[in-house]
Each structure stands twice: as C-alpha cells, then as structure tokens.
Amino acid sequence: MRLAELFRTKPLEQVLAEPTAASGQLKRALGPWDLVAIGIGCIIGVGIFVLPGVEAATHAGPGIILSFAIAAAACACAALCYAELAAMIPVSGSAYTYGYATLGELPAWIIGWDLILEYMVGASLVAIGWSAYLVNLLNNLLAPWNMTLPQTWTAAPWGPNPGVFNLPAAAIVLLLTWLLIRGIKESAQVNLTIVIVKLAVILVFIALAAGHVDPKNWKPFAPFGFSGIVTAAAIVFLAYVGFDAVSTTAEEAKNPQRDMPIGILGSLGVSTLLYMAVAAIMTGVVPYHQLNVADPVALVLNHLGMPWASALVSVGALAGITSVLLVLLLGQPRILFAMSRDGLLPEAFSRVHPRFQTPHITTLTTGLIVATASALTPIGVVAELCSIGTLFAFAIVSGGVLVLRWTRPEIPRPFRVPLFPVIPALGVILCLYLMVSLPGVTWLRFLGWLVLGLVVYTAFGRKRSLLNRH
C-alpha cells in the first residue's frame, strides 16, 4: 500500500457532479426557512433540557454558564468554516465530503467513521433524555392515583437506577425513522412545527423561574476549578451539532449556495443566548449538586412547587428533544449514503427509495442501531463519546478551509469566512483544546473506535474505493 494512495483527494469537479450523475437522486425540497428550522431543531434540545444540569453537577457548578460561552466561541469559528464549505460543495456527506476533497481518502474515512460515532451516539443520548421527560410527564399525570411507570421498562440495565430496557427511547427512534423514510419535505414540516412549540416552552420556563433565582446559589461559581468549566465546555459542545446536521442536507436544498450559510449561521446566535439564560436560571434556583438528573428543567419547576408547569415543560421538552432526534437521524444516513457512493461502504447504502427519494436503507439501519443503543445505555457514557466526535469533526472542517483556500483559490466561494486565516486557525485550536480537556476514559473509547474504523477501511473500503478502481 503506497502512502500516496491513502491521501488521494477526490476531484472537486467530480464531487460537484455527483448529485446529478448518481443513479438515485435525492429530492431538492428544502428552502432557507427549512434549513434554519433544521439547525434550531437540532441545536436547541438536549443542550438546554438535559446537559446543563448534568454538567453543572459533575464538572462546572454554576460556571456552566461560562462553559456554554466557551463552547459557543469555538462553535462560531467552526460554523463559519462549515458555511463556506457547504456553500462551495453543496453535496451530501458534511465534513466527510469536505475532507475527501481537501485532505484525502484516509482522512475522509476517519472523518466519516467519526461522524458515525457523533450522530449515532448523539441520537442515543437524545433518545434517553426524551424518555426521561416522557416518564416525568406521565408520572405527574398518574400521581393522583398513586401510580408510576415501571422502571423495569423505562431505564437501561446499567446506571444509578437500573432497569431492563428503555422502551420509550427505542419507540421514539423507530417512529422517527419511519417518518424520515417517508420523505424529506414531510420531515422538515414536522420539524418546523416542533421548533415553534419548543421555543414557546423555553420562554415560558424563563418567565416562570427567573424571578426565583437566588444569587447565593452561584457561589462558589467554579467549585471544580477552571479546568472543570473547560471540561464541561468540551462536553456541552455537542449541543451545537445542529449546524453540522444542516450541512448534511445540502444535496436536498433548493438553492444551497445561498441558503446553506443562512441555515448554519442563522440558527447559532439565538441558540447560544437561550443556552446561557437557561443555565443561569437553573443553577440560580436549585443548588448545582442537585441537578445531576436527565430532566433538570422539570426538576427546577418541581422544586418551585409547580408540578403543573413541570408537566407543561415536559411536553415542550419532549417536542424539543424530538426535533433534535429527528435531525440527528436525518443527518447520519446521508453521511453513510455519501460514503457508500464513494465505494467505502457497501453499495446497498447508496440506494434511494424509488417513490420517496430518501436513502431508506441507511435510514433504517441507523434507526435500528440507535434504538438498541438508547434502550440499553446510560446517559453519562454517551454524552462524553458524542462530544469528542463532534469536536474532531469541527477541527477537520476548519482545517479543510485553510487547505482549500491555499490549494484551490480559484474556486467560486458564495460565502467566505471573514478574518481568514485567523478564524479557521482558531477553530482548529479551540476544538483541539476542548478535546484535550475531556476525561481520559473518553479518549480511550474514541481511539478504540478509530482503530476499529481503520480495520474496516483496510479490509473493505480501501480496495472497493471508486478512486482505487479508477
């Protein structure tokens, strides 16, 4: 195996021709508002309804507010880089496709394999949070009759309160998988409706709880030190994965050169402000060490003696987390679709449904894997795994902008990253810094996943790659 073969790049002209040259074409049905809603639908969800409490209790304390700000700074640099590449290369595959055109086949495979970890593990995390809020809602409704849902079928077999099988988590994954197979436009319309409900509920929570904030609960602000704040920032970074999901739908956008930057950047600013506001209120109402639960927003309202509001927020949280899960389950199959089209995964993964024009085989495969993982896995493990995968992908995309600006300066760029090369370089540095801040056991799991990916590439992808055949 020659080293040059591992770093052969896919001609950009070939990448851009694929959406029309492929035997099965995805349907171009998404406008700018659809893309913005997809971004908001994925960004605002688990990061606001689940992660602030867990990370405040275990890593940052009230400093979780600053953790979100640090993560947002790194995220902004990466988002600008994503916007440039998504407008320039409007093809399915997100960071995997960008890496293939700029860095070479082996780096692209590593990115794609990493994105599988990011999306599937992220979807599992969100499904577990969705289940927790559903259980809280139903238990509140059943309380007058002194009844609760059996923990046996609402919790994973590992964790602080083990069960046998998390049935609600698996059920919602399979339902959304069916919706995604039915069509991209239908899925986008459902997502837009859910996003409106979600934003309304977040504003209700802020209005109800803001007046009960006790500044004493913010002291000490950083009980685990600044390193704890940075560790939490690295973990909550996964809350910003939404704009990455927007880029996976580039091949289904009506006018991707104009609309992809709108979708990516338009969904970022509002999300960051809401994250920081909710984190500040949450830690100001309830002492941070009591927030290590999967449904901290509901916990805050229960603490304030508002079980009716807790039930209302649980409805909104269910809606909000559903949209996140929907978008994650939308993004992953399109990455597998792109890798299959390049010959790096089995050919069946690049088939398109003749009626619905969706990648139905990869969508079904993703749904089955995520449903199983979410039913059997505790929430803490999947949060850390998802974060390291997200950070690695963002660092690669930021580096890809640097490479393409210097190697292919003549390519038209409908959107250009400002302050080049400072912003892309900062994106790389901040993402790598946050990766280093993650716990060592997370690195071991991540490296183990990458080693498994290299084995699969050596045994299958390298030989069957279309570039290798040519």
Automatic annotation (TrEMBL):
It is found in: Membrane. It comes from Thermoanaerobaculum aquaticum. Coiled coil: none annotated. One of its GO terms (molecular function) is amino acid transmembrane transporter activity. Gene3D superfamilies: Amino acid/polyamine transporter I. Keywords: Membrane, Transmembrane, Transmembrane helix, Transport. InterPro entries: AA/rel_permease1 (IPR002293). GO terms for cellular component: membrane. Its main location: membrane. It is a multi-pass membrane protein. The keyword Membrane applies. The chain crosses the membrane at residues 35-54, 60-83, 119-143, 163-181, 188-209, 221-243, 264-288, 308-331, 361-382, 388-407, 419-436, 442-460. It comes from the Bacteria. The keyword Transmembrane helix applies. This is Amino acid permease.
